[in-house]
């Protein structure tokens, strides 16, 4: 996880989102422990209370289990739960804006499919 923070969002929320991304991409697999609050605070040079707040948000959303004296662990089924909620969020919040922009620019499905290939050709 990178230590770059956006001034437009609270750090605890950004840390939460970085953790969610790690669960989604498999960097933090189900059943695995999260790094300790203390370690994350040191690594990112942030207040341990900020880390605790981010982790508590994951507990509240039932993505992480607290095990007293042992730590916090990614819950079984967390990735599937996240995929469902993130897909819904994308389709209802992000996609409408993207679709409107695509229409505004007059881009076709073909243009969108070919764009990565053109980018790769230019990079070579």
The side-by-side strand order for the widest beta sheet comes to 1-2
Query: How many strand elements?
Result: 2
The average pLDDT is: 93
Structural class: mainly alpha
Q: What is the ordering of alpha helices and beta strands?
A: HHHEEHH
Top-tier CATH class of the largest domain:
Mainly Alpha
The radius of gyration computed from the alpha-carbon positions, rounded to a whole number of angstroms, is 18 Å
* CATH architectural name of the largest domain: Orthogonal Bundle
Calculate the terminal CA-CA distance, rounded to whole Å: 28 Å
Describe the structure.
The chain has five helices and two strands. The protein is mostly helical and 124 residues long. The protein has a two-stranded antiparallel ribbon. Helix 2 crosses helix 3. The longest helix is centred in the last third of the chain and has 28 residues, at 78-105. The model has no long low-confidence stretch (mean pLDDT 93). This is GntR family transcriptional regulator. It comes from Wenzhouxiangella marina. Keywords: DNA-binding, Transcription, Transcription regulation. GO terms for molecular function: DNA binding; DNA-binding transcription factor activity.
